[in-house]
Amino acid sequence: MHDDERAIRDLVSTWMAASQAGEVATVLGLMAEASQAMKDIRFEGSYDIREIKVLGDWAYLRNYIAMTVTSPGGEQMRRAGYTLSILRKQPDGKWVLARDANLLMNVS
Hints:
By secondary structure, the protein is an alpha+beta fold. The chain has a single domain, classed as Roll (Nuclear Transport Factor 2, Chain: A). It has helices at about 5-20, 25-30; strands at about 40-55, 60-70, 75-90, 95-100, 105. Strands 1, 2, 3, 4 and 5 form a five-stranded antiparallel sheet that branches.
């Protein structure tokens, strides 16, 4: 496995662990453009990376995610589906999420 692919797999693992732990600053640090709107939402879930393709300083990642999102009021929403993420390599060699498209559907 190429170093860049390993770094992207590590990014996804860190993202999921930080999301589940409520570590918003860590999650936002993994994004090229970040939003504080996530700070009061709790995530739990799993992922299965299906494909990573590194193209120089850009890469794409196809992933299957199953997650439960809990709002600050305690309402839960379960979703699962595929995502397609575009990642960009920073000058320091760190990969960040640049764009993300997902087809997560509500799961009963």
